[in-house]
Amino acid sequence: MKIYTRTGDEGGTALFGGGRVEKDHPRVEAYGEVDELNASLGFARSIFQMPRIDEVLVPVQRDLFAIGALLATPDHDKMREQLAKARIDAQRIEELERAIDACEQELEPLRSFIIPGGTPKAAALHVARTVCRRAERRVVHLMQDVELPTLVVVYLNRLSDLLFMLARVANKRAGNGEVTW
What is the CATH number of the domain that holds 65? Predict the structure, then answer.
């Protein structure tokens, strides 16, 4: 199988489960942002590996593959399959919340806004957080025209909170202070 198919040379792309749309269709925008988020997390993991942080991110990356597949299909049965495969459910949201709570135990309470940065690891996690917020906005936009499980937005919302906290933890563990606004 070749990596290039030439089927997208005129600006269209195939959807998972059938059909074609233009490459700037809101559905493609949404799953493209989720793909960028996944790549951002891979980049963050590659920088100064921190096992307890990176162990949280690997299952998230798997979830994002399934969310991307869900967003790429207009077929509701295939959507349900992808949600089940990724375990994107209330329990998975609770797992993200527990990870956030664990970070909070390790950190001083927030008293002001934090300027993104610090160590390369923390800075990469802050970038991933902003990509996550953009993906969330694209999914919300898509939901104006397409029926999608609301858990996708909840997941992305919680994930951006987790990425913020992981960035703070990465700075703390590296002995870096935070710059406040």
Answer: 1.20.1200.10
Q: Which amino acid is at 20?
A: R
Please, how many CA atoms are within 13 Å of residue 25, restricted to the half-sphere of its CB?
19
* Residue 36 near residue 130, CB atoms below 8 Å: no
- CA neighbor of 166 nearest in space, from 55, 88, 89: 55
The pTM of this model reads 0.90
Q: At 22, give phi and psi (nearest 5°).
A: -70, 150
- 91 within some domain: yes
Question: pLDDT tens for residues 48-100?
Answer: 989 889 999 999 999 999 899 889 988 777 767 766 776 788 999 999 999 99
Torsion of CA 2, 6, 8, 10, to 10 degrees: 170
Amino acid at 171: N
Residue 113's identity, in one-letter code, is F
